[in-house]
Design a protein that fits this description.
By secondary structure, the chain is mainly α. Helices cover 66% and strands 3% of the residues. It contains 14 helices and three strands. It has helices at residues 2-10, 15-45, 54-65, 74-99, 109-139, 154-165, 174-200, 212-222, 225-242, 256-267, 276-314, 322-329, 335-340, 366-378; strands at 318-319, 346-349, 352-355. It has a three-stranded antiparallel sheet. β2 (346-349) and β3 (352-355) form a beta hairpin. α7 runs antiparallel to α9 (225-242). The protein is globular and about 60 Å long. The two termini are 26 Å apart. This is Mitochondrial succinate-fumarate transporter 1. It is a multi-pass membrane protein. It is found in: Mitochondrion membrane. Its main location: mitochondrion.
Length: 386
């Protein structure tokens, strides 16, 4: 039991690598799925029934505005996805570390839900809201003549919003965005872990590497629940972000609750789930793409860590160059090893470089203590545990 727990702890991916994997997944997802996001936004903003459905909306946009119009808002969308996934994956990993059981090292479902919700709230306030305000303002502009558009690009759009509506205009719709993203991530991270276990017998930290297609299936299924739960929040978010003040300084929707009531009274209950189908066409495939990339990146990092740590152990702590030591010290080796390193010195001996490691003396680091003793002995010094 203790050995299994130690192995699982050793295979945990550090938060910074989770963040890197999320950012790479975000870039790929944005480029593949931007057209669906444009169609979703147009449908949600359609109050007069101009579009008859997803296919009609897409064909209308292409016919009247050109194919490139399906990638309107790609720059803020890709940037915001990259930053969002970086923060989401990194902060979720940090929250899960805080919620881990001190004895077993495992995260409960409650802890996983709270970690996901916390990550969603952070990304909503720090990144998602201002980027989506700019993206939606750009996407709602119609026509073939860019010179007639109010907003000429992402930066011009942001500057115009700040000038006309103050800096707070970039955080229009923050409340429903927080609710949408918090709920989405709470459900998504919990469901992804559950599907990994159910379908592939993959437990977090067990060292097992999923194939890309397996990660895509788990990610796709995990991404389906959120849109159903958060449909009203997404519609209200889009309406609040898209609206600008009229000539008298007034706005149509006064806030999240007022928007829900107004939409329900004027357009019916179904309108609160408008754009659900394109969301289902975008979010689950997006999660499939993101997790396929993220899981492979973290797996590659973990494999490299294990190879480097194994080379240290096999050589009794002897390394062949200062570069290997630097790599170790900046955290490329497994997290538990890095945390055990307090100080180190390099010495030349028999044309090889050695590293002296002072490790923490505790029950969970006995193997590291033994490894440190061998290293110290190789340097001709007694071990110096703290």
């Amino acid at each position: 039991m203790a050995a299994a727990t130690k192995t699982e702890s050793r295979n945990q991916i550090p938060p910074y690598m989770k963040a890197v994997s999320g950012s790479l997944g975000g870039v790929v997802e944005a480029c593949c799925l931007q057209p669906i996001d444009v169609i979703k936004t147009r449908l949600q903003l359609d109050r007069v029934g101009a579009y008859k459905g997803i296919a009609h909306c897409g064909s209308t946009v292409v016919r009247t505005e050109g194919v490139r119009a399906l990638w309107k808002g790609l720059t803020p969308f890709a940037t915001h996805l990259t930053l969002k996934y970086t923060l989401r994956m990194g902060s979720n990993a940090m929250f899960q570390t805080a919620f881990k059981d001190s004895e077993t090292g495992k995260v409960s479902n409650r802890g996983r839900l709270l970690s996901g919700f916390g990550a969603g709230v952070l990304e909503a306030l720090a990144i998602v809201t201002p980027f989506e305000v700019v993206k939606i303002r750009l996407q709602q502009q119609k026509g073939l003549s860019p010179e007639l558009f109010k907003y000429k690009g992402p930066i011009h759009c942001a500057r115009t919003i700040v000038r006309e509506e103050s800096i707070l205009g970039l955080w229009s719709g923050a409340a429903p965005t927080v609710m949408r993203n918090g709920t989405n991530q709470a459900v998504m991270f919990t469901a992804k872990n559950a599907f990994d276990i159910l379908l592939w017998n993959k437990h977090e930290g067990d060292g097992k590497v999923l194939q890309p297609w397996q990660s895509m299936i788990s990610g796709f299924l995990a991404g389906t629940a959120g849109p159903f739960c958060t449909g009203p929040f997404d519609v209200v978010k889009t309406r609040l972000m898209a609206q600008s003040r009229d000539s008298e300084g007034g706005i149509r929707y006064k806030g999240m609750v007022h928007a829900i009531r107004t939409i329900y009274a004027e357009e019916g209950l179904v309108a609160l789930w408008r754009g659900l189908l394109p969301r289902l066409m975008r979010i689950p495939p997006g999660q499939a793409i993101m997790w396929a990339v993220a899981d492979q990146v973290t797996a590659s990092s973990s494999a490299a860590d294990q190879r480097l740590a194994s080379s240290f152990s096999d050589n009794g702590g002897v390394v062949s160059s200062p570069f290997e030591v630097v790599v170790a010290l900046v955290g490329t080796v497994e997290k538990e090893l890095v945390e055990a390193i307090n100080t180190s010195t390099l010495e030349k001996k028999d044309s090889l470089c050695f590293i002296e490691v002072i490790v923490h003396k505790d029950d969970t680091s006995k193997d590291l203590l033994e490894w440190g003793s061998r290293v110290s002995a190789a340097n001709g010094r007694p071990p110096n545990p703290q």
